C-alpha cells in the first residue's frame, strides 16, 4: 500500500509520522512499538498510540492494531481483524476475518476469535477446557460457569448439587464421582 492509499483509508496524515515495516511493508506510526522480528503485511496499519507488536507475531492482510493494544508471542492477526484499546493478543492466539478485540480483553493460549466476533471489556478468551466424560461433555461456557450436557450452572452450584443432578439424570455412583472430579478440576483451572 502506498502512502497515498494509507491516507485514502484513514485520512490526511503527515508522512514523517509513518514508516513501512522492514518485514512485510505495512504502515507503522512513529509512536507504535514494533519489533523487527514480526511480520507486518503490506496492507496492515499499526496506528499511533502505544500499540505494540513483538516476538514472532504476524499481522497480515488488512488487519489493524491501535491504541495501547499488544500483539505478542506467536499470535496472528489477519483478515480485516482489529485489535485496539488495551487489548492483548498473545501466545498462539489467532484473531481473523472481521473479528474485533478491544477494551481490556485478553486473547491468549491457542484461542481463536474469528468471523464477526467481538471480544471486549474485561472479557477473557483462552483455549476452553473441554472434557468428554463417560455420559456428557463438559466445558467452561462462561466466567465461573460449567456446562455439563445441557445444564449450564455456576461452578459453586455444581459443587453443591452434582450428586442430586447426577441421580436425577440417572448417573451411576461411579459416574457421579467421575463428574465430581471434573467439577473440581474446572474449579481450579477452568475459570
Task: Please characterize this protein's 3D structure.
By secondary structure, the chain is α/β, with parallel strands linked by helices. The protein is 20% helix and 30% strand. The protein has three helices and 22 strands. The two termini are 42 Å apart.
CATH architecture of the largest domain: 3 Solenoid
- What is the alpha-carbon Rg in Å? 21 Å
Average pLDDT number: 91
Number of domains: 2
Uncertain stretches of 5 or more adjacent residues: none
The CATH class name of the largest domain reads Mainly Beta
- Element-level helix/strand string: HEEEEEEEEEEEEEEEEEEEEEEHH
* Side-by-side strand order of the widest sheet: 1-2-5-8-11-14-17
Shape: elongated
Report helical residue fraction: 10-25%
In DSSP terms (H or I, runs of 4 or more residues), the helix count works out at 3
Quaternary structure: single chain
Fill in the CATH topology of the largest domain: UDP N-Acetylglucosamine Acyltransferase, domain 1
Look at the structure and name the CATH superfamily of the largest domain.
Answer: Hexapeptide repeat proteins
% residues in beta strands: 25-35%
Largest sheet: 7 strands, mixed
Measured distance between first and last alpha carbons: 42 Å
Tally of DSSP β-strands: 22
